[in-house]
Amino acid sequence: MWMIPLTVFAFTCNSVSDNNSAISGPSHLDNGTIDNCVDADKAAWAISKVYLYTDAYCTTGKQTITVLGDTVTTPTEANKTDFAGTPDLGSATIANGTYNCVATKMWDNITYSPATTTTSGNCAAATDYTQDICGSDNASSVTAIYDPDNSSTYNCSLDSAPTNEWIWIYFSTASTDSDNVTLADLENDFHPPTSDNLSNGVPLASALVVSAASSGSLKTTITNRVADDTTECMMYKPAFSFE
Amino acid sequence: MKNLSYLMIVAFMLSMTLYSCASSDDSTATATSTTSTYTVKGSM
After folding, report:
1. Residue A129 lies in a domain
2. For B16, which DSSP code?
3. How far is A236 from A223, CA to CA, in rounded Å?
4. Closest residue on chain B to A45 (Cα)
5. B28 CB within 8 Å of a chain A CB
6. In whole angstroms, what is the distance from residue A81 CA to residue A89 CA?
7. Residue A146: strand pairing partners
8. What pLDDT score was predicted for residue A25?
9. Judged by CB atoms within 8 Å, which residues 64-83 of A form the interface with B?
10. Does A3 fall in a domain?
11. How many C-beta atoms lie closer than 10 Å to residue A33's C-beta?
């Protein structure tokens, strides 16, 4: 008599593509696939400003779209905007042209809400949670960030001693962003690509052509990224794109 | 026949006048703005 073996699959919330989605450590945001986590139906960010550049390395032809602006040095929850409602973040009159690089200055800390309650109950639907996306609990794995305002580099804060929580995320038509774990130290989404390192930044699918009143969208993807590790609710690194 | 020729000349002159006016409007329309309003939105 033949017995049909039964196999029980244990579905675990994890990153299946590159295992680089952990919130601490990796210097690039996650564009890989994560399985068996929970969706979020809220993603609220505080955005300071957005720069558009004509060149792909974010160096020339800068145009500024101010959102909160530099006067808001430490944003509160009231300064965050929920991206679920496709909100207008800011507008400006800018020069007509073709823009190949986008730099976004945003607060490291996201407020998110699970769309459903997890089995262990640590992630409750319709409840707000916050998390830093650039923090680290280890001084050896803090991420370096390039600041275009003064052409210098600084590190994001340790979770235990948060200081400057502003981060810059770059989108470029030149970025290759291979998401290769062996390139983790070379592909930094908080740096623009350079001629000798195109792995930096997030790929911008096509240049932004501005010739009339128009808009662009800073998109954050938290689908399948909220995780319950049986002790707390957490979030894997979100993916970003500019469309 | 003479009247027909006269009407054709008048029609030709009228069409030239209209063309001239249209050309004048076109030259105005080619002046384009060098700036535009750009809006950044959020989405998820």
Report:
1. yes
2. H
3. 10
4. B42
5. no
6. 8
7. A153
8. 41
9. 65, 67, 81-83
10. no
11. 11
Query: Is A6 within a domain?
Result: no
Tens-place pLDDT, residues A64-96: 999 999 999 999 999 999 999 899 999 999 999
State the Cα–Cα distance between residues A61 and A50, nearest whole angstrom. 13
Q: Which residues of chain B have pLDDT under 70?
A: 1-7, 10-32
Residue A121 touches partner B, C-beta closer than 8 Å = no
Cβ–Cβ contact B38 with A under 8 A: yes
User: What domain range includes position A104?
Assistant: 14-242
User: Among the residues of A10-111, which ranges form H helices?
Assistant: none
Say whether residue B3 is in contact with chain A using an 8 A CB cutoff. no
Confirm whether the ipTM is greater than 0.90: no
Q: Residue A181 domain-assigned?
A: yes
Quick one: pLDDT at residue A134?
80
Task: Compare all CA atoms of chain B with the CA of A49 and give the residue at the minimum distance.
Answer: B40
Domain count, chain A: 1
Say if CB B43 and CB A217 are below 8 A apart: yes
